[in-house]
Design goal:
27 helices, globular, 50% helix, 5 domains, alpha+beta, DNA Primase, Chain A, five-stranded antiparallel beta sheet, 16 strands, five-stranded mixed beta sheet, DNA primase DNAg catalytic core, N-terminal domain
Length: 594
């Protein structure tokens, strides 16, 4: 049993999970030879360095060193522990795991997900016949969309949800962290001491990319209930600056259409989605962030900003443009009539008219020109200087040399700037991309090559174990990998069968044997840089000869130290014995210098 899940279920989960299909749900991948590459989901980058090797069942990032199999990917991406990740993949594959077998409810993360999911169903159950339902219908939202998006209602009253959660034995601490309950201050303290955070609000479930509910946005239905919109607080599963509302529903459409539309509010999203414009997302509870831009960059290259036509929307547009350029995305801007937003525009003018505006979205430079009160040449010198500074700052965020050059030339052309203005645009300082560094010696390099060989040719593992010992490895991480190979190659051979450890999925499973990132990183690097080019039997013979040479060298070094010690202490008999062994080893290497 692993994490309270029977081994046969674990193996079925792994065998039913295609790592390429799984990661493709999160990252846009492009085929390169036998592998697939894309932008790493675990660190911000503009040049793809994240590689999926489906034939061997693992992924690896040359930028940050992240590596592992399908389970490791979900653990890291969804912030889950091992049993939770297995449960996630089991659900995805339609495999049933009894809750009592995996101890899922015992983890804080599991409790958070469960409490939030319970609240979601509670809000949905309370929608029909409520003021929330009346309100959403007044906005012309159809029942099918209401159901699809999981819109609900938090009843008025201070402890309706509290009572339900306590009846279901949820922890008040977990429910407070989840943002469902609020602890009363001293003046309001009672025997219970907690009250519902969301009261008399229309509730929008906020989901992560994979579709799990991680928080809520609530719209007030009366002036007495505080701010117009109230969002869940951040916690270990919800980081508002890293989530885009609706992306779990629309990521497929964004990939298909090649661009994403960013709107500002829940009802903007709903109106567009209901109208059949399904490549849309919206921010919730925050302005647009670099993390959200990186998230979008996994699914598209172009982004259309569809913000409200007011001063706040204008400011938000300029902020978002810089972030999008910095993430390697190409922004365009829709110009809505003054005083309108996407929701009101669709209700007043219809879907076709909005689609025309989206199709004719302006490039950034055109938008800047449009936003000016007069022709650029007619502006005061100080205002012209402000515009040039704005363009220079935006250009500084464009990392790609070609895009940078095109932007500068287009800016000069659009605003009829003198050629000398090009000197104002300075290419941004770029850090040299470096792979993770290790202190690699010649022997360390050889040890890695040998490990790569036996991983790809496990038929040589047993022979290797009879000759090579763990202590022959000079580097501790290499030694750890060798010891694990020995364990699975001989003692547990049935786990991987007689096929190559590096065959489909097996490297991914082997990576899972190591809990620490450093060893997984090293192992993946070994597999990626596997040495070939000669028949396996020839390579094996060369590796063994070299290892015997290292063994002899190590033993001679040990004997030299012992001989010096025996001479110093006057151990005549022991000295003779040591010298004989030393000479014997020297003769065995046939005069080679060790």
């Amino acid at each position: 049993m692993v994490g309270y899940i029977p081994d046969y279920i674990v193996e079925r989960i792994k065998s039913d999970t295609d790592i390429l299909d799984l990661i493709s749900e999160y990252v846009t991948l492009k085929k390169t030879g036998k592998d697939y590459v894309g932008l790493c989901p675990f660190h911000r980058e503009k040049t793809p360095s994240f590689t999926v090797v489906p034939g061997k069942g693992f992924y690896y990032c040359f930028g940050c060193g992240a590596s592992g199999n399908a389970v490791n990917f979900i653990m890291r991406h969804e912030n889950l522990d091992y049993p939770e990740a297995l449960r996630f993949l089991a659900k995805r594959a339609g495999i049933t795991i009894p809750e009592k077998q995996i101890g899922y409810k015992d983890s804080i993360t599991g409790q958070l997900y469960n409490a939030i999911e319970y609240a979601r169903t509670y809000f949905v159950k309370n929608l029909k016949g409520s003021p929330g339902y009346d309100y959403v219908k007044s906005r012309n939202i159809k029942d099918g969309i209401i159901d699809e998006l999981g819109i609900g209602y938090a009843p008025a009253g201070w402890d309706n949800l509290y009572k339900e959660l306590m009846r279901e034995k949820f922890s008040v601490e977990v429910c407070t962290e989840a943002g469902l309950l609020v602890k009363k201050d001293g003046k309001l303290s009672s025997s219970r001491g907690y009250y519902d955070k969301f009261r008399n609000r229309l509730m929008f479930p906020i989901k992560n990319v994979s579709g799990r509910t991680i928080g809520f946005g609530g719209r007030a239905l009366s002036d007495e209930e505080g701010p117009k919109y109230l969002n869940s607080p951040e916690n270990r599963i919800y980081h508002k600056g890293s989530v885009l509302y609706g992306l779990n529903f629309t990521k497929i459409h964004i990939r298909q259409d090649g661009f994403a539309i960013i709107a500002e509010g829940y009802f903007d999203f709903i109106s567009l989605y209901q109208a059949g414009i399904k490549n849309v997302v919206t921010v919730s509870g925050t302005g647009f962030t670099p993390n959200q831009a990186s998230l979008l960059a996994r699914f598209c290259k172009d982004v259309v900003l569809l913000y409200d036509a007011d001063s706040a929307g204008m400011k938000a547009t300029f902020r978002a443009v810089d972030i999008l350029y910095n993430a390697g995305l190409e922004p365009k801007i829709v110009r809505l009539p003054q005083g309108t937003d996407p929701d009101s525009f669709i209700r007043q003018r219809g879907q076709q008219e909005l689609c025309k505006l989206i199709d004719s979205a302006m490039g950034y430079l055109e938008f800047v020109r449009y936003s000016l009160p007069d022709k650029f040449s007619n502006l005061p010198i100080s205002r012209q200087e402000d515009v040039i500074k704005l363009l220079v700052e935006t250009a500084a965020g464009i990392d790609d040399d070609l895009k940078f050059g095109l932007f500068v030339r287009k800016a000069i052309e659009t605003f009829n700037l003198p050629p000398s203005a090009e000197n104002r645009f300075v290419k941004p300082h770029r850090k040299e991309k470096t792979k993770p560094k290790f202190n690699i010696t010649g022997r360390d390099k050889f040890e890695r090559a040998f490990l790569g060989f036996v991983i790809s040719h496990p038929e040589y593992i047993e022979q290797s174990m009879r000759i090579v010992k763990a202590e022959n490895f000079s580097e501790s991480t290499n030694r750890k990998i060798f010891e694990k190979l020995k364990e699975i190659g001989i003692g547990h051979g049935e786990r991987y069968g007689e096929c190559s450890v590096s065959s489909s999925g097996m490297i991914g499973d082997f990576l899972e044997e190591f809990p620490d990132d450093e060893t997984r990183h090293r192992l993946t690097e070994i597999v990626v840089n596997e040495v070939g080019g000669a028949p396996p039997d020839v390579l094996f013979s060369e590796y063994i000869l070299k290892f015997k040479s290292f063994q002899a060298s190590d033993r001679l070094a040990f004997l030299r130290a012992e001989i010096a010690k025996a001479e110093k202490e006057g151990q005549v008999q022991n000295l003779e014995k040591l010298i004989l062994e030393y000479q014997k080893i020297q003769n065995s290497v046939k005069g080679k210098v060790i």
